[in-house]
Amino acid sequence: MRIQVNGSWREVPSAALAAALNDLGYGDALVTTALNGEFVASEARVRTLLADGDRLEILAPMQGG
Amino acid sequence: MLELYDTALSSRLLLGTARYPSPAVLTAAVRAARAQVVTVSLRRESAGERAGQGFWSLVRELGVRVLPNTAGCHSVKEAVTTAHMAREVFATPWIKLEVIGEDDTLQPDVFGLTEAAGILCAEGFQVFPYTTEDLVVAERLLEAGCRVLMPWGAPIGSGRGLNNLYGLRALRAHFPAVPLIIDAGLGVPSHAAQALELGFDAVLINTAVAQARDPVQMAAAFAQAVEAGAAACAAGPIEARDLASPSTPVIGTAFRG
Which residues of A touch B (CB under 8 A)? Predict the structure, then answer.
């Protein structure tokens, strides 16, 4: 399916968010996710299913003031 | 000793981690500042570069507490979602809540701020709201459950110092028991010393250190200024007056009468 990942359209084979993160190359990276503007906790990724057109945000620690 | 949400800290200088020339300089600046709390943020992570992973290992090695922010959020919804994401990644209930209302000054949207603060405090977050010196907004934030306030000194990154001295003094006087941290707008160590002399509990500095020609030396200078300001406040500064008051005793002055 095609979803927006961090603002760019990507083709993702897996339906579950946890598997999609693997597909996208995040593997064991420390990231946090939001789907269509809603936070998805890491423990909920396995049961969270993606749909065509979804907007997925994958964030990680960054410098800040 | 500074107490923020039941966490005791000996340092009154909180340091931002952005805009340093290199990770090594950031590390050295945090040490030179003797900071015990650093602010961090969340940004989109690229699977290829994984920049965030490297940054997070660096921060963990510093052995300091982190205060995640919601920088860049312009709505209650964005700020609340970002706070949830930050709590998961950084494993802390602390959140520096920023809801920006205006892009030229990065002035807080105090209406969105109080609403988001209410939501997050009810969910168990320990909220550090980035606010203005407005007394009524401060009152609303405390009612929402905030136990620390972070009024701005001046717009973020402006280096102007304490822009509204009257307003900040009034805020300090009105909330004598609430930890108040001057966040944003300080440019040089004397601004930080002034904040502490006025009775503010701490300052949060980023650009003034990170963008100095020598950030490490500037971090040390801010640390000294903060210590001096806190000591001066504890020592009880004299009141300023308009006319002279002789310091040398006038009784027994020669050649008079």
Answer: 6-7, 24-26, 29-34, 37-39, 41-42, 57-65
